[in-house]
Design a protein that fits this description.
Blueprint lengths: L1 H55 L31 H6 L22
């Protein structure tokens, strides 16, 4: 009978230790979970603040404004030289037979091959 009593006592003691260990592990995991949850909340709040400041940020106005729209829905603008107004699409639709030559020279009179 004493042996049975000792066996029960030992088993209960082991169960208490296991329950205590499980409870401790659960508390550690709960603390980690709360920490992670708080980090996620802080990052979400930061993202919301960043998005709201980006939406409220002033955008620089366009330097070029076109107020005169042609019947084609494209803008006419005066060339910088003050020349004749032409639509961009009209300029590129013309056949250009002129040929131009481009010469590239280095400042120190070397050739492009590096000699």
């Amino acid at each position: 009978m004493k042996e049975l009593k000792n066996s029960i006592h030992y088993s209960l003691s082991t169960l208490k230790k296991l329950v205590f260990t499980l409870k401790l592990e659960f508390l550690v995991k709960a603390v980690e979970s709360n920490k992670t949850r708080n980090e996620v909340k802080q990052r979400k709040d930061t993202m919301v603040k960043m998005k709201s400041t980006n939406l409220l940020r002033q955008v620089a106005p366009s330097v070029t404004t076109f107020t005169d729209l042609s019947s084609h829905g494209t803008a006419n603008s005066t060339p910088p030289s003050g020349g004749k107004k032409e639509l961009f699409s009209d300029v590129f639709s013309k056949k250009n037979t002129e040929r131009h030559t481009l010469t590239v020279k280095l400042n120190d009179n070397r050739t492009a091959e590096g000699s």
